[in-house]
Amino acid sequence: MGSDINTGYRDKRAFVSRDGKYLFFASDRIGKSELPEETMTLEELRQMMQLPVNGYENIYWVDAKIIEELKPEHLK
What we know:
Blueprint: E1 12-16, E2 22-27, H1 42-50, E3 58-63, H2 65-70
Antiparallel strand pairs: 1-2, 2-3
């Protein structure tokens, strides 16, 4: 689906809801998915782990209409 959907953040496990309305996928697109370069303090680690988005495959959803919108012309 191109760079509008696929990123360098390990996007995967895409599926469309039964009613065909939503596209769900997992991604590391927000947050850091790698270890920090410097040693973290215990308090920094606690703060990172309390964030709702900490870089470990969060689930996202978009309107499934995006599939048709991003489909190459030769496949429409």
